[in-house]
Amino acid sequence: MPSRRSFIEKSILSAAGLVTASRHLHLPSFGPTGHTDHLVISTWDFGIPANKSAMEVLERGGSALDAVEAGVMVVEADPISTSVGIGGFPDAEGDVTLDASIMNHEGQCGAVACLQKTLHPIQVARAVMERTPHVMLVGEKARDFAQQIGIPKTNLLTPNAKQAWKAWKANNPKWRAFSTDISNHDTIGMLALDKLGNLSGACTTSGWAFKIPGRVGDSPIIGAGLYVDNEVGAATATGTGEEVIKICGSFLIVELMRQGFSPEDACKEAVQRIKKRNPNNPELFVGFLAINKSGEHGSFSTKTGFEYALFKKGENKLISGPF
Length: 323
Ligand code: SD4
Hints:
Blueprint: H1 4-16, H2 19-23, E1 39-43, H3 47-59, H4 64-76, E2 98-103, E3 109-115, H5 121-131, E4 136-138, H6 139-148, H7 159-171, E5 188-193, E6 199-205, E7 226-229, E8 233-239, H8 241-246, H9 249-258, H10 263-277, E9 286-292, E10 297-301, E11 307-312, E12 315-320
Parallel strand pairs: 3-4
Antiparallel strand pairs: 1-5, 1-11, 2-3, 2-6, 5-6, 7-8, 8-9, 9-10, 11-12
Helix pairs in contact: 3-4, 4-5, 9-10
The site of N-hydroxy-L-asparagine has 14 residues, from strand 8.
């Protein structure tokens, strides 16, 4: 039985004859309980161990929110990853600064930006959501807040990252030649659907390698790097955050799914908008990942090379996304 709201939305859609939306109209198949199996999906190959941790939470009946937090924390704590948490490449002055956001099925959200010396920025983002009336804390004051809630300081600059920064600095004394190459853009964005059919998402990164100090990307910006609407679906982004912010990428994708786009078609439309704005930049990388309320998933990226990890029905696999 459709709700009054969805009936009205569909009627308006047909009455208006919205060609674009109806061309993509996609009716998700719901299981007997109103949703399909629980699942977790996340960007890049480090999504595999992250999904594993998140799925353990979902399997024991935990919430999607707890799952995404536990999942991304695996990558935040991994010093090998040079684009998330400890081991992340620093800014142009050699400081590792982190951006993170989290959003739950009630539309509650929290974020931190330009946060230093904190092993798990996602925990601070969640605390902003749950323990303050605010959505985002930034910089030194975000670190003060982390201290107040008992999160100790951690040095995040590993010897490997320091060496990479020194090598970069030797060739870029005036912070000029920033690269948008795919190699320094590897945020983890994770979306989960739990056994109750609720959605949540998390996104965490050290951002653009050797960025201008103070730069904040899309990952902590709700609607850009992450968005969740429990009636519709969820989306997250990786890649050049400036371009994601300009089109409100994740919010756009969720709104397109609301109009009937499949997750993949919604991601593709977002990518096409970015491509249209950047006709002369074939190297620009942005990738989107989305799931809808019935657990269907999809991705799309501006160029080849994007992969994501999907854990569903006992199988945790890496998928090459379309571009
Ligand atoms: C940013 N989108 O800061 C983030 C980081 C990234 O893959 O590079 N993601 O722009």
